[in-house]
Amino acid sequence: MNAPQVLHLTVDEEDAGQRLDNFLFRRLKGVPKTHVYRIVRSGEVRLNKGRVGAEHKIAVGDVVRVPPVRVSTELPASVSMNVPAREFPLLFEDDSFLAIHKPAGVAVHGGSGVSSGVIEQLRHARPQARFLELVHRLDRETSGILLIAKKRSALRQLQDQFRERSTGKTYLALVKGDWPAKKKVLDQALHKYLLADGERRVKVVPPDHPDAMRSVSLVQLSDHLPDPALGSSGGQMGCSLLAVTIKTGRTHQIRVHLAHAGHVIAGDDKYGDFEWNRMLAKSGHKRMFLHAWKLSFAHPATQEQMSLLSPLPVELVNMLPMGFNISVKVPGAET
Questions:
Q1: What is the model's pTM?
Q2: CA angle (269 as vertex; 317, 310 as ends), nearest 5
Q3: How many CB atoms lie within 10 A of CB 21?
Q4: Catalytic residue flag (residue 139)
Q5: How many Cβ atoms are within 10 Å of 67's Cβ, its own excluded?
Q6: Dihedral angle at the C-alpha atoms of 207, 213, 214, 220, nearest 10 degrees?
Q7: Domain that holds residue 270
Q8: Closest to 101 measured CA to CA, from 142, 46, 129, 161
Q9: How far is CA 115 from the centre of its chain?
Q10: What CA–CA distance (Å, rounded) separates 15 from 68?
């Protein structure tokens, strides 16, 4: 095994603008973060031959000198044992980003009692990838389209689109009751709070609430459908399939907006009808019917308009009448 050598790393456009410590974490895979901070503090790491702090923002053309450190070519054993390497069904991939179909039940990242999520598992499956970062997030219980950037420039450009609300994000939701076709706009402020056990919740609040966040959801009725909790024996209409386009990306926005409107989402274990959920589970339907169905945005490199679609997974198709075809105009698409 060759002895570690001094490294001279030149910052390119993809790395520019980030903190020095984050740059080193990515380049020195397998080196403990505590060691990275130690060599920065001691002055062994030099930027353009000078000393800087870990929080210093690097720029194009900067040269970072790194003292000899043993860089692992594999993930640490502690991580390897806990993080499964996993690829996810691809909807699109090029040099800038990839779009995957995220299954329900998988968090987008580790934390809050979850050892790993999509991003950690994907990084483990692609150890050669220099850069993989989440562009946005989906609830753990929600399936559908998720974007992951492969370049820092793509991450910045796509996140700017989400921040500026220039993307089109449409979800499919099966809700309890007959949704009125004329009810198309839900414009209620939301407020995040914590339960006694520290679990996060969201509720509708008046617009003048000190912590109110304006939240807008556009709703289009697809069809009134039979209640899947009643199985083949139930023929009466009791549910509605909705296409919901969110104009703001608040935590649990669709779930809370629909529940507040009196039409809870099937299988929602936080804001739903718990007795209905129990009946659904007894009929074999054990997940929430909320799916990130369509996403439109400009390609981060070419600016070409893109529109991706993630078909309903089989467990949600099974909650709909046999042979049912989704036919719905995406709300807000005409604006």
A1: 0.77
A2: 35
A3: 16
A4: yes
A5: 14
A6: -120
A7: 168-317
A8: 142
A9: 16
A10: 21
Strands (E), 111-236: 133-134, 143-149, 168-176, 185-187, 189-194, 200-205, 216-226
Tokens of 113: 């009692």
* Segment 207-221, tens digit of pLDDT: 999 999 999 999 999
| Total number of domains in the chain | 3
Report in angstroms the alpha-carbon separations of 132 from 43, 49, 244, 245, 314: 29, 30, 29, 27, 28
**C-beta separation of 276 from 66 below 8 A:** no
Q: In whole angstroms, what is the distance from residue 145 CA to residue 158 CA?
A: 14
Question: For residue 274, what are the contacts with CB-CB under 8 A and spacing of at least 6?
Answer: none
Question: Which residues, 6 or more positions from 50, have their beta carbon under 8 angstroms from its beta carbon?
Answer: none
Last residue of a domain, one of 66, 88, 103: 66
Q: How far is CA 166 from CA 51, 188, 249, in A?
A: 41, 20, 12
DSSP bridge partners of 306: 297
CB 227 within 8 A of CB 143: no
Closest CA to 332 of 166, 137, 135, 147: 166
Residue 175 lies in a domain: yes
Domain of residue 147, CATH code: 3.30.2350.10
Measured CA to CA in angstroms, residue 117 lies from 103, 112, 192, 295 at distances of 11, 11, 23, 21
Residue 24 has which token pair? 């080193």
Answer whether residue 19 is part of any domain. Answer: yes
Tokens of 125: 């499956």
Catalytic residue among 15, 62, 139, 227: 139
Which tokens hold the place of 328? Answer: 């719905």
* pLDDT tens column, 69-109: 876 555 444 344 578 899 999 999 999 999 999 999 999 98
The answer to the question of residue 211 being in a domain is yes
